[in-house]
Design a protein that fits this description.
This protein has one domain: Orthogonal Bundle (Arc Repressor Mutant), CATH 1.10.1220. It has a two-stranded antiparallel sheet with strand order 1-2. It is 40% helix and 21% strand. The protein starts with a strand and ends in a 19-residue tail after the last helix.
Length: 123
């Protein structure tokens, strides 16, 4: 992100975002990558919209027996507060974070997703 300080643009790191690595089903990630390209956004921005919906409802129906077997490592950044809320939600429901992320994909709203240019915003 860029900050306007004394009439000059200064490039800074967005402290509200944190790096996070998890394992997510390859069959989920690949279609999300295509959707992200089509809609000028990133996969993590798409996932964040789904996570916000799940966390706001506070309910999850997840069958641990149907966990995918094709999980791959997925590294990205998430909003710090959203990630903390996700960790607490997963703990309360006895699930892993990647289970909640995979479940939340069905609630993604592309229209609410940030654009690819969000990281280059000026504040």
């Amino acid at each position: 992100m860029w900050k306007l300080i004394n009439g000059r643009l200064i490039h800074t790191t967005d402290d509200s975002r944190v790096k996070f690595r998890t394992n997510i089903s390859k069959s989920i990630i690949e279609p999300l990558q295509a959707i992200a390209v089509q809609n000028n956004t990133h996969v993590n921005y798409l996932i964040e919209t789904g996570l916000k919906k799940v966390l706001s409802e506070g309910v999850i129906t997840f069958n641990k027996d149907t966990r995918p077997k094709d999980r791959i490592q997925f590294k990205t950044t998430y909003d710090k507060e959203l990630l903390e809320a996700l960790k607490e939600f997963a703990k309360q429901h006895g699930l892993f974070i990647n289970d909640v992320i995979e479940y939340s994909v069905q609630f993604i709203n592309v229209n609410e997703s940030k654009t690819i240019d969000y990281r280059y915003r000026v504040e």
